[in-house]
Specification:
307 residues, alpha+beta, SH3 type barrels, Pdz3 Domain, 8-stranded mixed beta sheet, 5-stranded mixed beta sheet, 7 helices
Amino acid sequence: MKKLSAQQRSTIQKWALYGLLLFIGFTAADLGIIYVREYFLPQSAPPKKAPKQQTSGYVDRSQYSAITSRNLFSSSGTIPDALAAVNAEQAEQKEDIPVQSSLPLNLIGTLVHSDPSKSVAAIEVKSKNMSGSYMVGAEIENMAKVEKVERGIVYFRNLNNGGLEYIEIAKGNTKVNFDSSRPSAGPVKAGGKDIQAIGNNTFRIKRADLNKYLNDLSGLLMQARALPNRDPNTGEINGYRLVDYQPGSIFEQMGLPRGTLIKSAGGEPVNSIQSAMEMFNKLKKESKVKLGVEVNGSDQDFNYEIQ
């Protein structure tokens, strides 16, 4: 130790003091644990677990009282209230039998779609001297709401009394045999007493003569049968085909052979009952109308001058 410097001896003494204090601390902790250890040991044995009881297969009948009291399976032979209410509603609907309407409406034609909600009826409102196309759910001039469209008949709800009514195409006014299997009557004679042919696929008609037909739109549509034609590739309606018409009718005078597919009018496609009705409106308003048609697979234009 004499060879060590005073600073080195001081460092060794400091660490020796720390070691002594650490030893005393561990010794005191060990003695303390020995003193209190007996207080942490259990004084008695742990309680025994109760043996597991086996459930009985017996079920009390009272557990099914909810089913019997609510009569879910009609064990008493009576129908529960909820079902009785539904049957009463169905019986009420059965009593809602449609009656023929006395409203000033005239059914011109119908277009029945595979989706009933998309079916359309062409109806003339006689009190306002107008006609239009109405789909299922549409209102007819605040008089009725269309409920269902079938071939040749339309069911609607009368907005005045809430009753279910119907109108149908007058069978007595049918002037043409609409049998599409009937052979063609031969080549069409273009022009006539009201429409004059003035060139190749070009015709002239006086407005007074034209209005004679358009003012009786229901009679005009009775002169011919037109069916929607679908594109074989897309399945969409691409026009209306003149299957048949009455000899000497305006359709024959217009130079349109039987089987003609009317595809456009005034440049607008004729692909719905609305656009077909618009075609007649163009004839009322325009001085020149061009029809885009397909005859025997060939696209052609028919031009009409209205004076």
